[in-house]
Design a protein that fits this description.
Helix content: 55-70%
Distance between the termini: 64 Å
Strand content: under 5%
Number of helices: 9
Largest sheet: none
């Protein structure tokens, strides 16, 4: 009988009875103020799914504006939805989906996409980091 009760407890745990506490703890650690940010590696991944650069930028903008996962938006595009329809469904301005951030148009960004960089080094932040490191040592 001891085995059955242990199995029942394990089954209940797997069904999620104790998972709500873990989800609450996880939700407390999520930084909700952080929005989606397109990285060169993510750009490369979305291209590999079959999206064009313009579609990648539209997906990134839609994910940033709406908070919806970029993969869900990419699937909408791959299934033939227009960005006008996507903007309407997500409740974001259509014009915002057509914007291209300045860093996305640089040769350095394209190099990062080609090489699969997981982040994009900003010249200003990189210079600041090196001077901060030098002053601490």
């Amino acid at each position: 009988m001891g085995r059955r009760s242990r199995r029942d407890r394990m089954r209940r745990n797997m069904q999620g009875s104790d998972m709500s506490g873990m989800n609450t703890v996880r939700a407390e650690r999520i930084r909700w103020s952080d929005r989606y940010r397109l990285t060169p590696l993510e750009h490369k991944r979305l291209r590999a799914m079959g999206l064009t650069d313009a579609e990648v930028f539209g997906v990134a903008n839609a994910a940033r504006e709406s908070g919806v996962d970029s993969d869900e938006i990419a699937q909408m595009v791959l299934r033939g939805r227009s960005f006008f329809q996507i903007a309407d469904q997500l409740g974001v301005p259509f014009d915002s989906l057509q914007r291209r951030r300045p860093e996305w148009q640089t040769a350095e960004w394209e190099q990062g996409v080609h090489e699969g960089w997981y982040s994009y080094p900003h010249a200003g932040s990189m210079a600041g980091m090196s001077s901060d490191r030098g002053s601490n040592r």
